[in-house]
Design brief:
The structure holds two protein chains of two kinds.
Chain A (H helix, E strand, L loop, with lengths): L1 H10 L4 E6 L5 H10 L8 E3 L13 E5 L5 E5 L7 H12 L9 H11 L3 H11 L2 H26 L3 H14 L4 H14 L5 H17 L7 H13 L4 H12 L7
Parallel strand pairs in A: 1-2
Antiparallel strand pairs in A: 3-4
Helix pairs in contact in A: 4-5, 4-6, 5-6, 6-7, 6-8, 7-8, 9-10, 9-11, 10-11
Chain B lengths: L1 H14 L36 E6 L3
Classes of the chains: A mainly alpha, B alpha+beta.
Chain lengths: 256, 60
């Protein structure tokens, strides 16, 4: 567990760690457990749903899914040694390159895309006009659309800080691509709506709180009281809901 | 009788767990409930383009 958390911290947004609870604990139980263990507050995802079956007979078990979605390694993490870290580093590097088997003339388009120059990447595909180029074009658009959908979700769910960061990046990257630019602009406009100002203030206060308590003793009475105060002060916001959930989780009895 | 057995077999197969994934497979999965801290991630497909480390663990 701690080694996966360290890897998430080390690679940031370039790697996604998903923790899957496999012993039947409820969401409340494992989330409270993770807070108590000082594992929360980072980018890792937590779920009780196995996105694919385990292959061994015991826990823990680790699987590495490559940039193309293929399972590259799976088993007891102790058996991997340094191979796991090497494979992650290789995949992070691969994420910045064209996929394996990409025809040479298309490599430039992928390079442009990874540099965030979406208009240039699409133009190169259009110039080439081949079936491969059209497939790559569709993939570029799909990837940007997925990020726009994520931005929309972040706005809707009261994560204005993360949404602003993503929308800012997307605005730069989609410059010169009207059909994408307009969708990004729509999210930027929603973020700027006056009624979101309170949500932004609340989200910042919640983020500051999490940063302050996650690696210390999250459920100490003083922290729980502070969370209660946040929930009260920003009542009606998504951040207040998160603060209320934190307070509720502090009351959950967990195994350790 | 044979027809009933055939129907039962088809129904059983449809309800059976997915075939075991493993190294070399490309699993597809949409979460029924978004993971904690999901930040808009709803499926494995949403993470295509970056490596994903899946850590199966237990609270006990």
């Amino acid at each position: 567990m701690p080694s996966a958390l360290k890897l998430q911290e080390q690679y940031g947004d370039a790697l996604q760690v998903i923790f899957v609870e496999c012993q039947g604990a409820s969401r409340d139980q494992y989330e409270a457990f993770a807070w108590k263990m000082k594992w929360m507050g980072g980018r890792a995802l937590w779920t009780e749903e196995r996105p694919f079956p385990t292959v061994g007979n015991g826990l823990p078990e680790t699987a590495l899914v490559g940039v193309d979605g293929t399972i590259l390694m799976q088993g007891h993490p102790g058996g991997f040694g340094k191979k796991l870290e090497e494979a992650i580093a290789a995949e992070v590097k691969k994420a910045k390159d064209a996929p394996e088997g990409t025809p040479t003339p298309l490599r430039g388009a992928w390079k442009s895309f990874h540099k965030g120059e979406v208009a240039a990447a699409l133009l190169e595909c259009d110039k080439l006009g081949s079936d491969d180029a059209q497939l790559a074009r569709a993939e570029f658009v799909a990837r940007v659309e997925r990020r726009i959908a994520r931005a929309k979700w972040l706005v809707d769910q009261g994560f204005p800080v993360e949404a602003s960061e993503l929308v800012g990046k997307l605005a730069k990257e989609t410059k010169g691509v009207p059909e994408l630019e307009s969708k990004v602009a729509a999210e930027a406009a929603r973020l700027a709506e006056p009624e979101r100002a309170r949500e932004k203030e609340a989200a910042k206060a919640w983020d500051t709180f999490v940063e302050a308590v996650a690696k210390k003793k999250p459920f100490e009475p003083a922290n729980v009281k502070r969370a209660e105060g946040l929930a009260e002060k920003f009542a009606g916001t998504k951040a207040a809901e998160r603060a209320q959930r934190f307070v509720a989780l502090s009351q959950v009895r967990v195994g350790s | 009788m044979l027809r009933s057995l055939a129907l039962l077999t088809v129904a059983t197969l449809a309800l059976a767990p997915r075939a075991a994934a493993g190294v070399g497979d490309t699993p597809s999965y949409t979460f029924r409930q978004p993971p904690v801290n999901a930040m808009g991630v709803k499926s494995l497909e949403d993470l295509r383009g970056k490596p994903v480390l899946v850590d199966f663990w237990g609270t006990r």
